[in-house]
Amino acid sequence: MESYEPRFTVDDDRVTERLEYVLDVLGCRSRLVHADVEARATELAPQNHGALLGRALVALGLPQGSKSEVDVSIPEWLLATPLSVRAEWAELYLLNRAVGRPEQDLVQIHEQNRSKAYRRELADVFESLGGGSVTFAGENALTLSAETARNLGFGREGPYRRDD
User: Fold this and answer.
1) Is 54 domain-assigned?
2) Domain boundary residue among 22, 46, 68?
3) How many Cα atoms are found within 13 Å in the side-chain-facing hemisphere of 3?
């Protein structure tokens, strides 16, 4: 039996708070999964109506299945949304995935098991929103230039910056 319950990997309190808020607004509430398991990533899942939410997300073009088993692409409808919606999406994505270095403004995103086409789509979104360049770094990473990172609020002095 296939499961449609979405789970969101969360490792930043700001992302967790936003997702909890959205799930509350949708009437799903939320619960943490694997929060106390050291070898697993903490996930946020709907407490109620998870299958309904999951089916709605799949209908909108979001992938279903194990992260490593699915060919992922950015849904076309997201690219057609107003700038404010794309900016909010990019902010959440970067809050959850971007890693910086204390001495540089640029940030990197590591995308294991993702196609080059998906990484190119990501780069296009971040370039269009950030006004600078995004380059490929090896097989699994993207590097947002200092200009792009600063313009998106992820430079060293930016409000969203996280260094690991």
Assistant:
1) yes
2) 68
3) 8
